[in-house]
Amino acid sequence: MVPNIHPAVPLLPRGAAPLLLLLSCLVLSSQADTLPKPPTSLIVTETTATNVTLSWDSGNPEPVSFYIIQYRPKTTYKGFQEVDGVATTRYSIGGLSPYSEYEFRVMAVNNIGRGPPSDPVETRTGEQAPSSPPLYVQVRMISFSHLMVEWEPPEEPNGQIMGYRVYYDTDKNDTLSGWKKHSTEDSQVTIISELYPNIIYNLRVLGFTSVGDGPPSEILQFKSRYGVRCIPPRFSIPPTNHEVMPGSSVNLICVAKGTPVPYVKWLKGEIELTKEDEMPIGWNILKLTIVKESANYTCVAMSSLGMIKATAQVSVKALPKPPTSLIVTETTATNVTLSWDSGNPEPVSFYIIQYWPKTNYTGFQEVDGVATTSYSIGGLSPYSEYEFRVMAVNNIGRGPPSDPVETRMGSRLPLHPLNVKVRKLSISNIMVQWEPPEKPNGQIMGYRVYYDTDKNVPLRWWKKHSTDDSTVTIISGLYPDATYNLRVLGFTSVGVGPPSDILQFNTPHEGERGSVC
Q1: Is pLDDT above 50 for 104?
Q2: Which residues pair with 231 in a beta bridge?
């Protein structure tokens, strides 16, 4: 008979099974009672003009309930929009604006709640043809046969405007493809020539992107003038000055009228910027890119009736250079006068002076709004070393500081010595000790110890004991068993400071030992 064989099961002590069951429940509960981790590897896998497809990794070892996608346009912050209940790690979001930058992030959700968001990812949606026409179309006759057309970009360009087409014809009922067409690049002004005089024309403008054409503007009617007399050149839109940041771009526009319509060209100083065989008539736009230095640009309009010029200055905005030649021109015990050169070819708004004591740096103090290149600073500490520097300020901000200059303030009368003490050495000798003044206000040249038995007589009549800059001295020749009054003062090269308070002491009588008072 074959005996029953059972797998070996370890024996548990009595009462251990409920405890084991409780521990296993706690482990399972602790695993479930945490929010999920953020998803990882979020990427954009596909982009159209209005749709973006995202994919990501869960980032969690345990299954999650679903995902939430948050997104927002980068140009106008209105808070995140959400797509809730996403069950997969790939999803397409629609209804986005063409050629717009968006930010996306994903969160995992479990039965506890939503976890932290993933690292964001940014993308730009694709282009579409413009969905609105150019705005504010205007026309202006500049001769009997030349028309200047101006407009503003479409409200919804849906991409990078590559250029515009101006359609015009005398029959507004004809299809647009049958109208005369004048193309231009992304400029918003152009000249149409060879118009017939005294004729009513119809005009429409449309913009286009790399994807296609947008809708044309509403029909604008105008009448060409007839019989215009000869008129010398004159500027209808002269060039204007510009201030730009270093490395930026700017367009200089120059429009001239006259009959005949003048040719228009650009000069930079004496350098011709417009080729002779490419000189346009009526208008000329000079496109400057990566501007690094200030310069003058001259627009020249010329016809058989004369030539006119107008100059525009393009100023590159930059922080001012540091002032130069900073020196100290005058010093007293509490005042310093500084002078410097601007160091800038262009005027600056004002200067800032920074200064600090060399012995105790607690940050620079500043004097703001200094309008001149010379200035006096007061309220400084006597016989202290200071460092000074100056910065120029313009409408962009404050420039770098000048090279620093250092100086020591002048001396002043010192305050009285501190903690004066007397030690009796014998019946006729004492040792006097003290500490230097709290504010010596200069180099202490020495001390004077005054002593007398009558404190009511003037100090100049007291006995005087002089010493160098040492803070201890011996006075001898005192009378035994007498009451003396003692005061100590210090002096600098400027003069004598006030004496310390009166210290009274008694000389010992015969046989008494010395002591300190």
Answers
A1: yes
A2: 259
The domain of 144 spans 135-223
Residues 72 and 140 in one domain: no
Q: Is residue 270 part of a domain?
A: yes
Q: Which residues contact 296 (CB under 8 A, 6 or more apart)?
A: 268, 269, 311, 312, 313, 314
Q: Which residues pair with 423 in a beta bridge?
A: 431, 516
Has residue 18 been placed in a domain? no
* Per-residue pLDDT tens over the stretch 174-231: 999 999 999 998 789 999 988 888 888 999 999 999 999 999 999 998 888 654 556 7
CB 418 within 8 A of CB 440: no
Residue 271 lies in a domain: yes
Tens digit of each residue's pLDDT (9 = 90 or more) over 397-432? 888 999 999 998 887 788 899 999 999 988 899 999
Residue type, 132: S
Q: Is residue 7 part of a domain?
A: no
- Regarding beta strands 66-73 and 463-467, do their DSSP bridges make them parallel or antiparallel, or are they unpaired? unpaired
**Confidence (pTM):** 0.41
Number of domains in the chain: 5
pLDDT at residue number 25: 41
C-beta atoms surrounding 363 within 10 Å = 7
Give the per-residue pLDDT at 384. Answer: 87
Q: Which three-class secondary structure state does DSSP give residue 222?
A: strand
Cis geometry, peptide bond prior to residue 260 (ω within 30 degrees of 0): yes
Burial grade of 323 (CB within 10 A; 0-12, 13-18, 19 or more)? buried
Residues 404 and 364 in one domain: yes
Domain CATH code at residue 65: 2.60.40.10
DSSP tag of 153: -
DSSP helix/strand/coil, 23: helix
